[in-house]
Amino acid sequence: MTSEHRLAAIDLGSNSFRLEIGVLDHGEFQRTEYIKETVRQGAGLDADRNLTQPAMQNGWDCLARFGERLAGFAPAQVRAVATQTLREARNRDAFLERANAVLGFPIDVISGREEARLIYQGVSHTLPASDERRLVIDIGGRSTELILGQAFKPRVMESFRVGSIAWSTRYFSDGQFTRKAFEIAEIAAKAVLDEAIDAYHPSHWDVAYGSAGTVGAIRDVLEASGWPPGSITQDGLDWLLDKLITAQSTDRVKLPGLREDRKAVIGGGLSITRALFSLLGIESLHSTDGGLRHGLLCELSGNTDNTSDLRLKTVLRLATKFGVDRVHGARVGKVATALFEQIEKARADNKPDESERSVRKIKWAAELHEIGSHISHSDYHKHGAYILDNADAMGFALPELHRLSLLVLGHRGKLRKIEADLSNDELRAQLLALRLAVILCHARRDPDMSGVRITALHHGKLQLHCATLWAQEFPQSAYLLREEALAWQKTPWPLDFVEH
After folding, report:
1. CATH assignment of 113-294, given 3.20.20.140, 3.40.50.1970, 3.30.70.3040, 3.30.420.150?
2. CA 7, CA 482: separation in Å to the nearest integer?
3. Which among 279, 376, 371, 262 has a CA at the least distance from the CA of 326?
4. pLDDT score of 49 more than 70
5. How far apart are CA 456 and CA 499, in angstroms?
6. What is the distance between the alpha carbons of residues 10 and 141, in angstroms, rounded to a whole number?
7. Where are the domains positioned within the chain?
8. How many Å apart are CA 150 and CA 202, to the nearest integer?
9. Which of 28, 107, 266, 399 qualifies as a cystine partner to 313, CB 3.0-4.6 A?
10. CA-to-CA distance for 39 and 166, rounded, in angstroms?
11. For the segment 286-306, what is each residue's pLDDT rounded down to a tens digit?
12. CA 186 – CA 175 distance, rounded (Å)
């Protein structure tokens, strides 16, 4: 691994300073190290909007540690930016002079809209390719960014001076949580964000995403308390509000998933989030880990091609990293696709646009179905599923990645291990096609499929036809197909096998 492939991004946020280091692999950035320090510099602005000496010293100390880690990096490999706190600080030049020296690289103080643009760039490159109209929200320590965009292109960007540190300092300065304090904080947030109502009206977007920071903190608490993963709803916000009011103060808050460094700012962050839900008519806010530093890394790597699909790059990277036989994977994918098309024709609820997405997933699962073979020969499907469920796979949403893991887990062996998931018609059709394709390609050569076809019997039941002459010519394949039909006979979705 050569040093010229290394990249690093530093985000000097109002709450935390973050350093992310990684390498370019097949044109995709892969994280190798991530360091986050809670500096809370946004709380170090005095009444005259000057950074206090302790606040500056804490920042310098953190950047000195980052600088030591970045020794050997070239200037073209590193990008460092500062946001709202240093946008506000009147003595920022004094801070930056020493900060640049201890870090060893120049720090750019970027505008609110530039921050918003980079946030959207980072978020859009960690989401699946889509034409959906997106609302992206990033609630930071002293500012909140709102962006409207589609695919990789942001269309409307704005930064508002309302953040979790600023609101917690102003409305929860004594660390006390009361319903009245939350009402006042929420009203105040609405007053600042009110001008966003027209530009960010629900008619202008389809899906709302929340980037890291406050959204991530709220998501972690809700997930740890049993709420559905990956998104925040009004009911979840109401529940969290009641929990904080019941606790009465920051030092008495004991919620699973809430880190100690977030307790002091959760009140302000929750107030702002609730204000945005109310003003913008948000029903569900989907959490994404993409953000500012990812946007910086996209630009450093030149990965700003609007037509690129990070999922394809992710599949290629994983296949290469784990030494998968890509020729065989493509072969299985081709056969599985042909079988899936027969299954879809037999299904009464066939939807062409959904079928196209299903086929893509089948091909990806086929290419990666042997990803665990270098760990275990007999249980490689189990290891492959674990890898996919825990992979840092840019471009894939977690549910989408889990679907691939289920296909890899279920492509061989007993169906009982994933029977609970097979009630999903699409997954069941995908898995049947993949399992049959793996059987037909067992000799690791292109199979003769002329003697095999799938038709509908009744009530959605499928029938697998095998020509007698074909079975005589390929006795092992015919035997495995009979065994596969027997496996499905033990489920609520039996597969009939007919030889003629």
Report:
1. 3.30.420.150
2. 53
3. 371
4. yes
5. 15
6. 16
7. 3-110, 113-294, 310-447
8. 14
9. 28
10. 14
11. 999 889 999 999 888 876 543
12. 16
Q: How far is it, in rounded angstroms, from Cα 39 to Cα 362?
A: 45
Residues in Cβ contact with 252 at an 8 Å cutoff, skipping those fewer than 6 apart: none
How far lies 421's CA from each of 344, 402, 417, 428, 494, in Å?
19, 11, 9, 8, 16
Burial class (CB in 10 A: 0-12, 13-18, 19+), 179: exposed
**In this structure, what token pair is assigned to residue 75?**
């200037």
Residue 51 and residue 391: Cα distance in Å, rounded? 40
Query: Using an 8 Å Cβ cutoff, are 265 and 142 in contact?
Result: no
Give yes or no on whether 3-110 and 113-294 have one common fold.
Answer: yes
pLDDT in tens, 6-38: 999 999 999 899 999 988 777 667 889 999 999
Distance (Å, whole) CA 278 – CA 190: 9
Residue 331 corresponds to which amino acid?
Answer: R
Q: In what order do the strands lie in the sheet with 133-139?
A: 153-160, 144-150, 133-139, 207-211, 284-288, 231-233
CA distance 468 to 486: 18
Question: How long a stretch of residues is the chain?
Answer: 500
Selection from 385, 382, 346 nearest residue 463 by Cα: 346
Q: Beta strands of 43-106 (E only): which ranges?
A: 78-82
Give the count of beta carbons closer than 10 Å to the beta carbon of residue 306.
9
Tokens read off for 21: 């280091």
- Among 428, 419, 437, smallest CA distance to 349 is for 428
Q: Is the pLDDT of residue 4 over 60?
A: no
In sequence order, the 6+-apart residues with CB closer than 8 A to the CB of 17 are: 10, 11, 36, 37, 39, 41, 59, 62, 63, 66
Helices (H), 194-325: 196-199, 213-224, 234-247, 260-263, 266-280, 292-301, 310-321
Quote the mean pLDDT of the chain.
91
Q: Which H helix or E strand runs over 227?
A: none
The answer to whether 211 and 154 are in contact (CB under 8 A) is no
Residue 415 gets which letter from DSSP? G
Name the CATH superfamily for 310-447. Hypothetical protein af1432 (1.10.3210.10)
Which of the listed CATH numbers 3.90.850.10, 3.40.50.10860, 1.10.10.60, 3.30.420.40 matches domain 3-110? Answer: 3.30.420.40
